[in-house]
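pls design
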């Protein structure tokens, strides 16, 4: 067994544990995976495609890649097409754009005095909108996103430090206004494992030339978390166990 195969087995064990523990995949599911072209979404697509071949549970997988006309943040679509073809996953490439500049400067919510809609918010919102639209057109009942364990932990720290609440992105979330669930099958996989597997698998790196990309609160929290892990390797497990005890990972359907 090669190093890549051994690492895939470890990652796959965590993937299986997650979809069993949080009931992320069930028979007759039709899953649309958001394929950005980054390492996380590439791995998620590969894991779902391989699992679908086993027929336990029995489900179908399709992928969607959303390209933004006004933001240079893309992966070669021919690479993504080849990647999906090799896995037997239908790929849908959609082109859209973020809102006009006038909309960028609108308040985030009614009554907000100084809140603005930043370009990053609008870009993410447009991508999600396409996910929801295509999922319903294709008859999918679940949308799979590539958030890994570090993403959930960083989100918990951000919410605690900047919003005064202990919460994070759940492994499974039932949408209230549409018959769709958001699932995060990589929630038990640590980012360093994904980075190593991406290198061993020679995943093509995503090209990023976003004019709006800069250091954010998430960047600061990432650095804080990395520093804490250096001082105490158990920090990851302590924080995750705290989220589990408070029911913040599961029980969101």
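designed seq:
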């Amino acid at each position: 067994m090669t190093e890549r195969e051994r690492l895939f087995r470890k990652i796959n064990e965590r993937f299986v544990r997650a979809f069993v523990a949080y009931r992320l995949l069930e028979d007759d599911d039709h899953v649309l995976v958001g394929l950005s072209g980054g390492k996380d979404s590439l791995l998620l697509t590969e894991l779902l495609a391989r699992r679908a071949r086993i027929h336990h549970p029995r489900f179908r997988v399709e992928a969607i890649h959303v390209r933004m006309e006004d933001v240079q943040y893309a992966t070669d679509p021919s690479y993504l097409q080849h990647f999906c073809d090799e896995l037997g996953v239908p790929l849908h490439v959609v082109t859209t754009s973020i809102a006009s500049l006038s909309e960028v400067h609108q308040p985030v919510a009614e009554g907000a005095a100084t809140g603005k809609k930043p370009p990053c918010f609008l870009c993410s919102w447009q991508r999600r909108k396409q996910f929801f639209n295509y999922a319903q057109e294709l008859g999918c009942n679940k949308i799979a996103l590539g958030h890994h364990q570090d993403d959930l932990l960083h989100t918990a720290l951000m919410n605690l430090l900047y919003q005064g609440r202990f919460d994070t992105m759940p492994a499974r979330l039932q949408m209230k206004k549409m018959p769709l669930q958001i699932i995060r099958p990589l929630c038990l996989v640590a980012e360093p494992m994904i980075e190593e597997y991406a290198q061993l698998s020679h995943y093509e790196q995503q090209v990023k030339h976003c004019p709006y990309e800069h250091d954010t609160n998430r960047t600061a929290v990432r650095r804080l978390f990395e520093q804490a892990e250096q001082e105490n390797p158990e920090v990851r497990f302590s924080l995750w166990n705290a989220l589990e005890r408070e029911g913040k990972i599961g029980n969101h359907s």
